[in-house]
Amino acid sequence: MARRKIIAGNWKMNKTPSEAVALVEELKPLVANDDVDVVFCVPAIDIIPVVEACKGTNIQVGAENMYFEESGAYTGEIAPAMLTDAGVSYVVLGHSERREYFAETSETVNKKMLKAFEHGITPIMCCGETLEQREQGVTMDFIRQQVKVGFLGVTADQAKTAVIAYEPIWAIGTGKTATTEQAQEVCAGIRSCIAEIYDEATAEAVRIQYGGSVNAATAPELFAQADIDGGLVGGASLKADFGKIVNYK
Ligand code: PEP
């Protein structure tokens, strides 16, 4: 069965609640494509107004992070039940910016993955190499490690519903998109890794996105690749361009 494409915007730390609602109103008609899953991953404070603004549309709302405990003395964190109660269905986990600036590790990503599944939230688990790792020829070793640790204890049935975003760090926010061949090669490698951990059926079901300076011009070729099931889009998700990316065909 063909995998359904998933195109998610990662708003990062942009847009106040009122600006967020205005952006949703602008993008709503532009992203109305029922052939793909459309997700807006927004800052925590924007979640409730964005969920409200997206009611009756094809847009699903995601969070950009989540903590792995149920509740308690974790000042500043957001619990999974808070997200589901607010209407969130996806969560970005292990984005390279969180790994770099907020000491996120594959071990904490794994704890968050398990918690997300427990609460019925679909994780979009990010992985990707630095430019140095690419030049050293260890891209796939590094990513396999991120995927293997991230999925520890995740069942095959859960893994089938997961989304993995391959995001080469050197391509994020830099305007340098990986070539189609580079992106396809790593996404295929990630799928093989999932097949090794689980089985072919799980590998065939899991959705793998490419992320890193995706724009309206690069999306059609990237998303046409056999192992690329859509994109995680940063900068271009805040503009009307996102509509063109969602309607890439
Ligand atoms: C991202 O934030 O995940 C991302 C890929 O950003 P950009 O599209 O701006 O490179």
SSE succession: EHEHEHEHHEHHHEHHEHEH
**How many DSSP E strands?**
8
Give the strand order of the largest sheet, numbering strands 1, 2, ... along the chain: 1-2-3-4-5-6-7-8
Which structural class is indicated by helix and strand composition?
alpha/beta
Helicity level, as a percent range?
40-55%
Q: Provide the list of bound ligands, each named once.
A: phosphoenolpyruvate
Question: What does this molecule look like?
Answer:
The protein has twelve helices and eight strands. It is of the alpha/beta class. It has an eight-stranded parallel beta barrel with strand order 1-2-3-4-5-6-7-8, surrounded by four helices. Helix 1 links the parallel strand 1 (about 5-10) and strand 2. Helix 1 packs parallel to helix 2, helix 5 (about 105-120) packs across helix 7 and helix 7 (about 140-150) packs across helix 9. It is globular and about 45 Å long. The mean pLDDT is about 95. The structure holds phosphoenolpyruvate. Phosphoenolpyruvate (PEP) binds near residues 10, 167, 232 and 236.
Give a summary of the structure in a few sentences.
42% of the residues lie in helices and 16% in strands.
Which properties best describe this structure?
249 residues, alpha/beta, 12 helices, 8 strands, binds phosphoenolpyruvate
